[in-house]
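Reviewers of the previous submission asked for a worked example of the structure-prediction workflow described in the proposal, so we include one complete record here. The input consisted solely of the amino acid sequence. No template or homolog information was supplied to the procedure at any stage.
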Amino acid sequence: MNDSPSFHPHRRRALCCGAAAIAGLFTSLAAQADAQATAVPWHAWPAPLADLLHRTFEGLDPAALWDVHTHLLGNGDSGSGCTIHPSMTEGWHPLERLRRTAIMQAAGVPGDALGHGGVDRAYVDRLRALAAGFPPGARWLLFAFDRAVDDQARERPDWTTFHVPDAYAQQVAAATPERFGWVASIHPLRPDALERLDRALTGGALAIKWLPSAMAIDLRDRRLAPFYARLAASRTPLIVHCGEEKAVPGAGRDELGNPLLVRAPLRAGVRVIVAHCASLGQALDLDQRRPTPRPAFDLFARLMDEAEWRDRLLGDVSALFQVNRGAEVWRTVLQRADWHPRLLHGSDYPLPGVGLLYSTARLVHEGLLDASDVAPLERLRRHNPLLFDLALKRRVAWRGERLSPLVFDTRWHFEPAR
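From that input alone, the workflow returned the following structure tokens.
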């Protein structure tokens, strides 16, 4: 039991206290996920969806529209090397099974595929079908995800919720290069971390992705200096999840998701993209003499306003408008036009297909969305959650302020790395 990532000592109490609520939540999420992909070209939908999509793409360059936060998942049934922790399939871990079911249904993986060797293929086929609904040129950066490694540099599959090898992400992207690029994931404490990094960069990786709390990565560890130096020299962005992590418990090291810790790679000259703008949960304010918890988003905002990092610190807006974010987060991001050149569009796919994670009704209630947009947005979500995610971000506004088209002009943030 102690070896399961879902029952890691750092997380056991929280999971036990919230078990009933989480069970109900994921049951609802799984029930609402729509597995039907409709690969209709964006300009061919009937009104009012066509009107919504014309407004969505107005002023955007499709060739610059790169979704910088797209998850690639599987169970290895195609020989991909992907793995899912046993706790997500075992009957005595019902919450983890519900989590897996909700995510896979949101990704359009049919129930019969789970038992008949078609999970890897169904996941990628669905993503390709959804991408086909976008104008030519739009692309998605597919995330690999490395296993957790402990402080003694030992690989810990028992702490690894899921694993997606770099080679598989590279393979899927190479099969459809007009739609997909790939992002490597390499734990920096691996003995061969630099060798893996060089191989990934040679193989076309556009960035490196870390989830410190799940992978057990302390960004301040001095042993990371050579890895940082290589990233800085190659101008390769480091995408770091900060703030609370809900979907991937992994090693359970929540304290390692503190946004203030990204100062370490920033000081080393690395360009850092903070996933989700650290918009969920709290973290200790380490700048205080006696650190106390603060919203992680407030700490991210502090970093964004520090002049020292303005040419290297960015944030992605994936998951930002989910129902579990606060209205103050939404309003701040919309109003801070000075941040917009440093904010990047991302979907956090497959989560846009998970029903209860989004509430257009709440956005209307908070004054961020016009009620007339709700019906077409909800209809669009049922058919193409990736288009829904983009359209939602283009429609939300606060006191006349919207996300700038610069937020969706993401390609140039990655091409300088080459």
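The first strand starts at residue 66 and ends at 71. We consider this example representative of the routine output the project will generate in years two and three.
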